[in-house]
Design a protein that fits this description.
heterodimer, A: alpha/beta, 50% helix, B: six-stranded mixed beta sheet, 7 strands, globular
């Protein structure tokens, strides 16, 4: 673990991320700064839509590194994550030259052109410094985690036919998880942990103002208040920051100037994604029923 | 914080991690080293930054953060003794806790504090709330007969919820004032959260409701600060380690079912959904893993087309998942009711993992309550009370009788148990010295695929008093299931197979 000279202090981290368009709370900035200083991967956990993937992109933008993204899904394995040989092409190569002997062909079919480089290998072999984003790690299974652990400990891959490859510069690694599954202990111990929750009201207001600058400030503030109240209710899927900005943009497009109950009721479809949630929110906030709203 | 010698800081970190281990957060040696490097990298100037940094190094799951925060406040306190900022309030002599002269002066003092609290809530001023929490804990929470502080006493005397109405007045008053001055919505004391009054923003009734919710949340936060302050003061009086061991509130997953009160039950209920999601993912993953075996020839040949007819990548035959039937037999008497209700809610949330789910409740006779459990989308909190009121779970007398309950189950509902059924019995096996009727349990076990008994009592109290746990455990597997953590382990290890 070598330190990655990415940021100088917590304050400069926050400023750099803000410069890249990401408003980070102090917790996030501290964890990001420490991940760089200590050279450890950063495991970001939290509900969907709070900006975990965006954080990695913002770090890449602000430190001028290339972003390499590995999107995990159920069944992702070494062939999809690390590297794979292009078997079809190799077979064609072999059948194309039936006359020559094995020795001549052998070095040919294990050349670079038959190697399919996947994200992890790309991150290791990259010339430029790299931010490696492993997205939604909880969707992958335990074998994948074992593979990751191996990579993360030395940043070194040995391909039997081509030799061992070591990373020229240590990547800045960000792992994200939606916490649908418990990750293994070994992986957790390897990383610094950051739990990103829905932002505080003040921070969210700043985010809305940054993303939707044409909306009036008081209306934006009211939007944040209503969304905060929605989060306090026990809904199946609480609205995230992405939904708040979506709603703000919708209001701007509709040219609304105040949030009366009918407007809120019509906007619930943008913010909430389940019908049962919409009904529950309408009941608790005392909003008119759909027909009354549209007949307005 | 003044500069401490390196070894003293290191010792403090080690004590801190030791306290964390007592409460279920288990940082290993490598994490302690990381924590030390974090301290070195961040420095000691800002307490909140240090808190965030240590949390990144030591906390491993989001559920552990609350325990971490409480212990951090104890081991890296904001101050020693009274807070220097606390001298701003009107009352004199903050350092010495004066014995109260008379009733009326005490009441006046409380009223003054309450007014300040209302103002701080209306402004949503976090610093003022912090300062007030210190004052309240120090002055109202001081115990009379012994050294120490009690948050419960302080909050009892203050009654912070009574300040909500006043805070509401203050905030709407400020907004009206703001409108009268030109309606820009950006003036007056109530801007931070009370903006958006008449001209643009929210309508009147909506504004009221949201304000009320925000004030309530503010009061809950204030309570937490008072408790934290009282713990800090107590730690100075009684020793940090003792307070760390006893006064820190465990996260919801580690609290015993039998000791949970009404408020905790609500918190527990909120934990069912995320727990069920994780368990469902784990169970289906395990089941799918067992489905390897036979090669599916047709799919293998299909795949080999892309490699020129050479079958490099074999495809396996996928067996459809075999899901068990689940029968829950729950004791709904007394303290076990909370445990039963929670497990019912959990199994209902996991219902896709089972082919059929049937739920039976008993106190001294058994009746079926499957429709009460599966009917509602969101399990109503009163399912146990409804069952007690409307179903035949109480036979002669209102006390538990396991023998009679098992008998009535085998008499009426034994057809619910088949060769694919897993039966879960939930109860503490305390039968008021009635007959055990172990033969009935044996009948159930012979008909089912397996029977498992979950006992919310600690294993050391089985067989004490009127508990028949030993006799029942001789017939079926009995597991101790004291808190959510153990329940979760049970579901992933035992129920999956």
């Amino acid at each position: 673990m070598h330190p990655i000279a990415a940021f100088d202090s917590v304050a400069s981290t926050q400023a750099a991320l803000a410069g890249a368009g990401y408003l980070a709370s102090e917790e996030i900035a501290t964890a990001t700064f420490l991940a760089g200083t200590l050279g450890k991967p950063l495991l970001v956990e939290g509900p969907a839509g709070v900006g975990k993937t965006e954080l990695a992109k913002a770090v890449a933008r602000s430190t001028d590194r290339r972003l390499v993204r590995l999107q995990c899904y159920e069944g992702v394995d070494e062939a999809r994550a690390l590297y794979e040989w292009n078997h079809a092409k190799q077979l064609l190569r072999i059948t194309a030259e039936r006359e020559t002997g094995w020795d001549a062909v052998r070095s040919d079919i294990f050349a670079e052109e038959f190697l399919l480089e996947r994200p992890l290998l790309a991150a290791i072999r990259s010339e430029r410094p790299v931010v490696l984003l492993v997205d939604e790690l909880d969707k992958a299974d335990e074998e994948m985690e074992g593979l990751l652990l191996e990579i993360l400990s030395d940043f070194q891959v040995s391909i039997p036919e081509l030799g061992t490859m070591t990373a020229r510069s240590q990547p800045f690694v960000v792992l994200t998880s939606n916490a649908t599954r418990e990750l293994s202990e070994a992986l957790r111990r390897r990383c610094l942990f950051l739990h990103v929750d829905y932002p505080e009201a003040d921070l969210e207001k700043q985010i809305v103002r940054l993303q939707v600058p044409d909306l009036s400030q008081t209306l934006a503030d009211s939007v944040v208040r209503v969304v905060t109240a929605l989060r306090r209710m026990r809904l199946r899927k609480a609205p995230s920051v992405a939904e708040t900005t979506d709603w703000a943009r919708t209001l701007l497009a509709l040219g609304a100037d105040e949030l009366d109950p009918a407007t809120i009721r019509a906007g619930l479809g943008v913010v909430l994604k389940h019908q049962s949630d919409i009904e529950r929110a309408a009941a608790e906030l005392d909003l008119p029923t759909r027909s009354a709203a549209t007949g307005h | 914080m003044s500069a401490a010698t390196p070894s003293a800081l290191g010792d403090r970190l080690v004590e801190f991690t030791r306290a964390l281990r007592v409460h279920g957060v288990r940082p290993g040696s490598s994490e302690i080293v990381d924590a030390a490097r974090v301290t070195q990298a961040l420095g000691l100037e800002r307490r909140e930054t240090l808190r965030a940094g240590l949390a990144a190094a030591l906390v491993r799951r989001s559920g552990q953060r609350e325990v971490f925060d409480q212990l951090f406040d104890l081991y890296f306190p904001a101050a020693m003794g009274d807070r220097s900022g606390a001298g701003d309030s009107d009352s004199e002599a903050v350092d010495e806790i004066e014995p109260v002269a008379s009733e009326s002066s005490e009441r006046d003092r409380v009223a003054a504090i309450r007014e300040e609290l209302a103002q701080a809530l209306a402004d949503a001023d976090a610093a003022a709330l912090e300062r007030l929490a210190a004052v309240v804990a120090a002055q109202l929470g001081a115990l009379r007969r012994q050294p120490g502080f009690s948050a419960a006493q302080a909050l009892d005397r203050l009654g912070p919820q009574t300040a909500i109405a006043r805070a509401h007045e203050l905030r709407s008053g400020a907004t009206i004032l703001g409108d009268g001055e030109g309606g820009s919505g950006a003036s007056g004391a109530g801007t931070a959260a009370g903006s958006g009054g008449g001209a643009s923003g929210l309508g009147g009734a909506m504004q009221e409701q949201l304000t009320r919710e925000e004030l309530r949340a503010g009061v809950a936060e204030f309570r937490r600060r008072v408790e934290s302050e009282a713990r800090r003061r107590n730690a100075e009086v009684r020793g940090t380690e003792r307070i760390a061991r006893h006064a820190v509130v465990d996260p919801v997953e580690r609290r015993d079912f039998l000791l949970t009160g009404q408020r905790d039950l609500v918190e527990l209920r909120a934990a069912v959904d995320p727990l069920a999601k994780r368990l469902a993912a784990a169970l289906s993953l395990q089941r799918r893993r067992h489905a390897r075996g036979h090669i599916d020839l047709r799919r293998t040949l299909r795949r080999s087309l892309s490699t020129g007819g050479v079958p490099i990548d074999p495809a396996f035959r996928v067996r459809p998942p075999r899901r068990p039937d689940l029968v829950l037999l729950c004791d709904v008497s007394g303290s076990v009711a909370g445990f039963s209700a929670f497990t019912m809610a959990l199994m209902q949330a996991l219902s896709t993992q089972f082919r059929r789910l049937r739920v039976f409740a008993f106190v001294s006779t058994t009746d079926e309550i499957t429709d009460l459990v599966t009917g509602a989308d969101d399990l109503p909190d009163g399912v146990v009370t409804t069952a007690l009121r409307t179903r035949a779970v109480l036979g002669w007398g209102a006390s538990s009788s396991y023998g009679q309950a098992l008998d009535s189950f085998t008499a009426q509902f034994l057809d619910a148990v088949g060769p694919r059924t897993t039966v879960l019995v939930l109860g503490d096996a305390r039968s008021n010295y009635g007959l055990p009727r172990v033969s009935a349990l044996r009948d159930i076990r012979d008909q089912a695929r397996r029977v498992i008994w979950l006992n919310p009592e600690p294993a050391t109290s089985w067989d004490t008093g009127d508990s028949l746990a030993g006799q029942y455990a001789a017939v079926v597997d009995m597991h101790e299931c004291r808190n959510v953590e153990q329940l979760r382990t049970f579901v992933t290890r035992v129920l999956a197979g």
